[in-house]
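Running this now, will post back.
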Amino acid sequence: MKNALDQARIDSVQCISPSGLHRMVYKEWGDVNNPNVILCVHGVTRVSDDFDDIARALASHYRVICPDVVGRGRSDWLRNPLHYQLPQYVSDMITLLARINVPTVDFLGTSMGGLIGIGLASMPGNPLKKLILNDVGPVLNPEALARIGDYIGKEMRFASEEEGAAYIRSISLPFGPHTEEQWHKLSADVLRQDKDGMWIRHYDLGLARSIQAMTPEVAQAGEAMLWAAYSAITSPTLLLRGKDSDLLSVETAQRMARCGPCASIVEFDGVGHAPTLVQHDQIAAVRAFLMS
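Update: finished.
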């Protein structure tokens, strides 16, 4: 019989955007009465299921909350795709924190999820104790953004789950080496069947609108705001980095170790953007930081 702490529960919270209300779904692991809570937030086209392995590893010590950011997975889509922006995501996380009603949390964010964490951790009076940023910082490589933006908005339909999984694997090779079972899950988590029985990616293609609308001037202003936000963080911070990452440069990581919360850095060989946190060494690095 499986331990009850190893089983996920699905719940949702109602959030608000400028164009109305939307439902954000989240997975929850561990004892609901545990005061030690960690919020885990995924990357731009990923889902809460990304954290299944690490959630099980932490569930004996933590209540683990993993939302599907609006526009992804089980959550609603926004009526206006131009509202898929960092301030909206931070607002939704604040609503989620109000729902779970705990005084403090730790935060783990991969890529986009890490930017949400920076925004939240920079706010005066925020509830974050420890912050883990997975392969992301205030400077985003334009070439990497172009690579990601190139495939986000493309409408693609696959005749079979296997065909869809092969595509997901092809664009996810920077994740590094994985077993066949791990690749299958990483693909299956972000695929679903539409009403015609075709397989599609499990997010709103409108996510690409805000990326495509970004001008160099907007990007420069956003970077300045992110550095100011990072510099305001006081929580102990761990920065995870794939040694082959094209999104988080060595120079940016080193600067993050010198300013603001002066993040500790752990790098993983043979991994690009981003560590998936399903490998034992990656999970161990997170556990060591949280339990220290």
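The CA atoms of residues 161 and 199 lie 6 Å apart. More later if anyone needs it.
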